[in-house]
Structures are given as C-alpha cells and as structure tokens.
Design goal:
Elements lengths: L19 H8 L1 H22 L2
Length: about 50
C-alpha cells in the first residue's frame, strides 16, 4: 500500500474526459440507429429461439 493521499477537488478526483472520437460516436444519430437495430435483432433472435 502506498501512503499517497488524493486531495479533494484535485485533477485526480475527476473522471477522464472523452476523446473527440468518442464524443462523435456518442452523438452520431446514424451510428446510434444502426446499433439500436442490431441490438434489437439480437434480442429477437434470443426470444424466437426460446419459443421454439
């Protein structure tokens, strides 16, 4: 164990800032719609497979 203390409100207390690329993919409507449909298809496969 190290005896290093983190003071409140120091730079180490805050979460990391997302990169420019991360912010782009989080706000891109086309990407979000694509991921939404892919996720829904996966869920449908699981549900249909469970009912056979």
């Amino acid at each position: 164990m190290s005896n290093r203390t983190i003071t409140p409100y120091s730079e180490e207390s805050y979460p990391p800032v997302p990169t420019k690329g991360t912010r782009f993919w989080r706000s891109c409507v086309i990407w979000q719609a694509t991921r939404f449909f892919i996720l829904n298809l996966k869920i449908i496969r699981i549900v249909v497979g469970g009912h056979s």
